[in-house]
Specification:
The complex is a heterodimer of chains A (about 110) and B (about 140). Chain A has about 110 residues and is an all-beta fold. Chain A is elongated. Chain A is about 0% helix and about 55% strand. Chain A starts with 6 loop residues before the first strand and ends with a strand. Chain B is α+β, with helices and mostly antiparallel strands. In chain B, about 25% of the residues lie in helices and about 45% in strands. The relative contact order of chain B is 0.22. Chains A and B meet through strand 3, strand 5 and strand 6 of A and strand 6 and strand 7 of B. Strand 5 of chain A pairs antiparallel with strand 6 of chain B, so a sheet runs across the interface.
Chain lengths: ~110, ~140
């Protein structure tokens, strides 16, 4: 159901080994709360992204359980340690079963 | 004159009662959510920082920031929303700090509560009042 879902992630392209970096993620999504009504008074069914997670080389960095009270186009900002060169994998799970992913590689400078 | 004064008082009393009645319901839902998260454990007042704006002009997108050194997860509740839960952050082994930022919806002026679960099994709680000019639940 969700249309035009585009993940956007900002990760530095390189970091020193062991450095703490800040990651910013945003995914365009209506996050229909299930509280709103349409013009005829019918409740618009809930349709949100219910979980987000970020992993680095198979190890978990950060995850979120999301409720309808998170704004449309959910935005998350968090910090990660970069022990080695590798790849960040970002995963968003939609209520309708869709899974959106994005990956960002990072080098050791 | 007397009757109209009485009627006015009755109306005022009724309105006050109506305004009070929904509050226990919300409080229960909040307490239930906190109890489910902590298992009824005591919560410390320190160790968790919750940053929200004092006044949010648009309840649809209110920035919220938590910082809880040593936490494994942090739950955020909006006590005045139809459903209090907002989100739960879980910090994994590669988290650089126990700090996260997101944006939430607030239906009306209310207290926002954050509860952090620390790595040693203790809990911390912080709350902040946010004044909302335009609510964000589209009800």
């Amino acid at each position: 159901m969700a249309e035009n879902v585009t993940p956007r992630v900002r990760v530095p392209s390189s970091a020193a080994a062991g450095e703490v970096i800040t990651i910013k993620t945003l995914i365009s999504h209506v996050m229909e709360s299930g509280q709103r009504k349409d013009g005829d008074g019918n409740t618009i069914p809930r349709s949100i992204i219910n979980t987000f997670s970020c992993d680095f080389n198979g190890q978990n960095v950060f995850s979120v359980n999301i409720e309808p009270a998170v704004s449309a186009n959910p935005y998350f900002e968090f910090d990660a340690v970069v022990p080695e060169a590798g790849e960040f994998v970002f995963t968003w799970n939609d209520d309708d079963g869709s899974v959106y992913t994005d990956t960002k590689a990072i080098e050791i400078a | 004159m007397k009757i109209s004064r009485r009627a006015t008082l009755a109306l005022g009393g009724g309105a006050a009662l109506a305004a009070l009645l929904p509050l226990p319901g919300f409080a229960d839902a909040n307490d239930d959510a906190i109890a489910a998260f902590t298992g009824g454990a005591e919560m410390a007042d320190t160790g968790l920082t919750l940053i929200t704006p004092e006044i949010a002009e648009n309840g649809n997108t209110v920035p919220v920031e938590v910082d809880a050194p040593g936490a494994v997860s942090v739950m955020i509740l909006a006590t005045g929303n139809p459903n209090p839960g907002v989100c739960t952050f879980n910090f994994g082994p590669l988290a650089g700090s126990q700090h996260a930022v997101t944006r939430m919806r607030l239906a009306r002026t209310q207290d926002v509560v954050a509860v952090a679960k620390m790595a040693d099994g203790s809990f911390a709680k912080a709350s902040a009042t946010v004044k909302v000019t335009i609510g964000g639940c589209g009800g």
